[in-house]
Amino acid sequence: MAKQKKQYSKRKASQFNWWRTFWQIIVCKIGYYTYLKVVYRLEVHGKENIPKDNKYIVCPNHLSSLDPPMMASVLPRSIAFMAKKELFDIPFLRWWLDWLGAFSVNRESLSPSTIKTAEQIKDSNWVLGIFPQGTRCLPGEIHEINKGFAGLARLTKCNILPVGIVGSHEIKKWPFSGKIIINIGEVIPYDRNTDVVKDKWIQEIQKLTGFKYTASEKKTNGMEEAVK
Q1: Hey, which of 17, 28, 95, 136 has its CA 20 to 30 A from 211?
Q2: The pLDDT of residue 2
């Protein structure tokens, strides 16, 4: 009998366990945090806005591949980020993401298992992390917003924690040569109207980053359809 392929979109609350928590602490809260402080002179503002419980979704703007581990390095709880399923086709990267608590998502057609995983995270001590832009964008710009994050907030009854990232797109190697600023905004309550939540997130990210939102025509994708 052929061995069943592991589903990286499906997670139970028990899988966000001590081992994955420990691994994220070592890799992100110690390794990445030290690197970011030394090379990028990382600054974090607004920590008083972080809820004490885990009933919120971390929703930053997205500039670079540094953003997910950086978020895990500065926030108090471990974060399970959604990652595009193509990344799980790469052997070593698949193992790395899996142990850091990430789970796969098909951005064209969101599976029920991904939605269930989002609900399971709430039953653990972790929090869910989503980039509403879906992909990395140029600094100074906010566009291509996928309101599926607002739909998942409604389904899981979790609020939104907006986080503004500035400066992570610059590739630096020498100590103190870069500058990254993270601004954590006030919690946005979940709402049955996903457009309301989306608009509030855009307004907050503009304030936190100084970037400008530019509306663009975009077809509704799988995530938005699945959480309607």
Answers
A1: 28
A2: 39
Amino acid at 30: I
Closest CA to 222 of 19, 66, 85: 85
> Is 2 inside any structural domain?
no
Separation between Cα atoms, residue 210 and residue 16, nearest integer Å = 35
208 falls within a domain: yes
Is residue 4 in a domain? no
pTM, 2 dp: 0.90
Q: Could you list the residue range(s) of the whole structural domain that residue 94 is in?
A: 14-226
CATH code, domain with 61? 3.40.1130
Query: For the chain (length 228 residues), average pLDDT per consecutive 10?
Result: 60 94 97 98 98 96 96 97 89 92 81 87 95 89 89 95 97 94 98 96 97 72 56
Closest C-alpha among 67, 84, 83, 2 to residue 28: 67
Q: 47-50 contacts: CB < 8 A, separation 24 or more?
A: 47/184, 49/161, 49/184, 49/185, 49/186, 49/187, 50/75, 50/76, 50/161, 50/184
CA distance 183 to 193: 26
Q: What is the pLDDT of residue 53?
A: 95
Count of the separate structural domains present in the chain: 1
Q: Is 213 inside any structural domain?
A: yes
